Amino acid sequence: MNLTTTATDNKVPATADFLPLNGTDYVEFYVGNAKQAAHFYKSAFGFQSLAYAGPETGQMDRVSYVIRQNKLTFMLTTPLRANNEIADHIAKHGDGVKILSLMVDDATDAWHQTTSRGGKSYVEPYKLSDENGEIVISGIHTYGETVHLFIERKNYNGTFMPGFRKWETLYNPPSAGLLYVDHCVGNVGWNQMNPWVKFYEEVMGFKNILSFDDNDISTEYSALMSKVMSNGNGYVKFPINEPAEGKKKSQVEEYLDFYNGEGVQHVAIATANIVETVTDLQNRGVEFLKVPESYYADVLDRVGKIDEDLKPLSELGILIDKDDEGYLLQIFSKPLEDRPTLFFEIIQRKGAKSFGKGNFKALFEALEREQDLRGNL
Asked: Which residues on adjacent β-strands are paired with residue 149?
């Protein structure tokens, strides 16, 4: 089965693009126990079993479980021995995102285009083949130890990719309505946002479509700055956060401390019905940040008329914001790991192309309450 594009309605005008991207191919996590992590994501988030690689398929140093829900694909990878890149990554960072892979028509050209513009090569173009065809893969480094792989699968008709076998299980819980990656947010160190913005502009041809400073994203105690980078067709968006000066430690600083460096802060996942999805996820045990009931007292005065009933939104803690093209509904999970690092955002766009600027203060105050409980504010 071929992956289809994770296109969204949230596009920017297409321009001459030296690195055409067709969306997110898969997100790979390095985790301490991939078998258990796969079961968690299936049970809690409604993923289905897709593919497996390990010693039984000739992959002797690691195991990888691939799970899918609609156009959203995760790979969960665990090393089988110590003293290697994967084991070292987990020891340093805990479970986290290692690879943000991107669908391209030509992985060889993508590698040449990006490395010729200053990108640091992670892997030169190579082919994987089996009876179902071939896939071409290449990759470059980005912030921290995170990597972008370019995946060319136009000549492949297998389940996932060569080296993997179809993973069939009796336990396949129903979908929670998660559709595709809307955006992925990276946290970088002090004064590193603009250098990484420049990287995405020069190396990958992205554009800075939105910027937020510490006046936009701040509370009484903490602040951060953020710039949203988008590729030419708007299929791939990478907001970049850095800390800003505040009275106390910001959520980005807490992340950097516990992740031991820069990395992916959260993956935002689209849904077509956020009330149904979040209700389902909560019933499966997923925990979300909650804002005070007072948030909803005047929210419709700020955003105007919406299609949804406000009562279930307030009961679930779903936030609402608008821009010139519509509105959006969003909610953020609590950290998915024992370390206060990676979390997920669930988002439903009703025309809006923005990222919830009007919710930043309420969201940050909710995050600070959690930080304070951990003793990290």
From this structure: 101, 139
Residue pointed to by tokens 């979390």: 343
One domain, residues 58 and 188: no
Give yes or no: residues 314 and 192 share one domain.
Answer: yes
| Domain co-membership, 228 together with 160 | no
* Cα 193 to the center of its chain, rounded Å: 18
The last residue of one of the domains, among 118, 138, 166, is 166
Per-residue pLDDT of the chain (377 residues; tens, 9 = 90+): 333 333 334 444 444 799 999 999 999 999 999 999 999 999 999 999 999 999 999 999 999 999 999 999 999 999 999 999 999 999 999 999 999 999 999 999 999 999 999 999 999 999 999 999 999 999 999 999 999 999 999 999 999 999 999 999 999 999 999 999 999 999 999 999 999 999 999 999 999 998 877 666 666 666 778 899 999 999 999 999 998 887 677 888 999 999 999 999 999 999 999 999 999 999 999 999 988 888 898 899 999 999 999 999 999 999 999 999 999 999 999 999 999 999 999 999 999 988 877 776 677 677 777 888 888 76
Q: Whole domain around residue 43: which residue ranges?
A: 24-166
Give the Cα separation of 362 and 366 in Å (integer). 6
Treating both helix axes as pointing N-terminal to C-terminal, what angle do 251-259 and 360-374 enclose, rounded to 10 degrees?
50
Pairing of strands 343-350, 263-271: parallel
What is the rounded distance in angstroms from the CA atom of residue 18 to the CA atom of residue 195? Answer: 20
Q: Are residues 102 and 205 in the same domain?
A: no
Query: 255 in a domain, yes or no?
Result: yes
99 assigned to some structural domain: yes
Cα distance between residue 352 and residue 117, in whole Å: 33
Say whether 254 sits in a helix, a strand or coil: helix
* Amino acid (1-letter code) at residue 301: D
207-212/223-230 β-pairing: antiparallel
Between the CA of residue 130 and those of 165, 235, 364, what are the distances in Å? 11, 29, 49
Domain membership of residue 151 (yes or no) is yes
CATH number, domain of 240, equals 3.10.180.10
Q: Same domain, yes or no, for 146 and 201? A: no
Both 32 and 134 in one domain: the answer is yes
